[in-house]
Amino acid sequence: MIHEYSDRISHNMLLSKQSFVKDFHLHNFYELFLLLEGELNFCVQQTFYHLTPGSLLMINDLEIHKAINLKQTPYRRIYIHIPPAFFYKYSASDLNLSSCFTARNIGEKNLIQLSGQQLTYFVDQYEKITENETYSLPGKELLMETYLLQLLVFINNLFLYPAAPSFCRYTPAVQDVVNYIKEHMTEPISLDSLSHALSLSKYYLCHTFKEETGTTIFNYLLLLRISKAKSLLSEGKNVSETCYLSGFTNYNNFITTFKKITGYTPKKYQSTEQKPEASKT
């Protein structure tokens, strides 16, 4: 699991056959993911995206996701990780820069397919960000954030005026599992209850889900519950309420699991997520 929590922006351009994190996971930051070369399927919660060069994904800190390389060759991508606190500093009355991450339902509208000109602009801005690393005079961090702000304005305007959505669906059986878990994740779910609800054998469900997504049904469910818990804690729910409202039945197991996946205890995570109060005038 990746569970770093930083108040700094991080970025990289990578070429590899596989993601560093091969299974479903979630972050404590917002992520921009741009595919430059290759062909991927990319799962974000209940949605299954097919990515080609120029595909830009926007993933927030509550969305579980994973990349599936469709070829035996490496794929090249750019990622930019942005801590939520960054957006508190740069809130504009006419444009909320976090909209592309937050002004949508979880696992929906994550994808923008960039045109050739738009792709060139993104890469040019990214190169300015990376070139800024060699800047040796005062103002280095401010310059980097300036380039990122320009990029975020560009992305949010594309998000607000989107082209036709581009995504494909899981196969029917896996889509049924994903939809059922989404609707019932705060309730007790067993293979027996899932099999009964969907009228499919337990073996078929487990085998088909694992083959298509690369993970198990219950790992997927566990991450959804942790995502729900993060959301509840950010809303101000106490740890005990959060435990049961997110579908956990054992408090100690919830604490252990939450820390294993996010890197923080629920209470520490909640204190880290507190937004700064608006200054009084």
Descriptive account of the structure:
With 281 residues, the chain is an alpha+beta fold. Helix content is 44%, strand content 16%. The chain has eleven helices and eight strands. It has helices spanning 85-89, 99-102, 116-131, 140-160, 172-184, 191-198, 202-213, 217-234, 239-245, 251-262, 266-273, and strands spanning 10-16, 30-37, 40-44, 47-51, 55-59, 65-69, 75-82, 111-113. The protein has a five-stranded antiparallel sheet with strand order 1-7-2-5-8, with no helix packed on it. α3 (116-131) runs antiparallel to α4, α8 packs antiparallel against α9 and α8 (217-234) packs across α11 (266-273). It is globular, with a radius of gyration of 20 Å. The termini are far apart.
List strands and helices in order, with pairings.
Elements: E1 10-16, E2 30-37, E3 40-44, E4 47-51, E5 55-59, E6 65-69, E7 75-82, H1 85-89, H2 99-102, E8 111-113, H3 116-131, H4 140-160, H5 172-184, H6 191-198, H7 202-213, H8 217-234, H9 239-245, H10 251-262, H11 266-273
Antiparallel strand pairs: 1-7, 2-5, 2-7, 3-4, 3-6, 5-8
Helix pairs in contact: 3-4, 8-9, 8-11
Primary descriptors:
281 residues; disordered C terminus; alpha+beta; disordered N terminus; 5-stranded antiparallel beta sheet
User: What would you report as the Rg, rounded to the nearest angstrom?
Assistant: 20 Å
Separation of termini? 43 Å
Provide the spatial order of strands within the biggest beta sheet.
1-7-2-5-8
Please state the structural category. Answer: alpha+beta
β-strand amount: 15-25%
Query: How would the global form be characterised?
Result: globular
> What is the succession of H and E elements?
EEEEEEEHHEHHHHHHHHH
Give the averaged pLDDT, no decimals: 88
| Total count of helical runs of at least 4 residues | 11
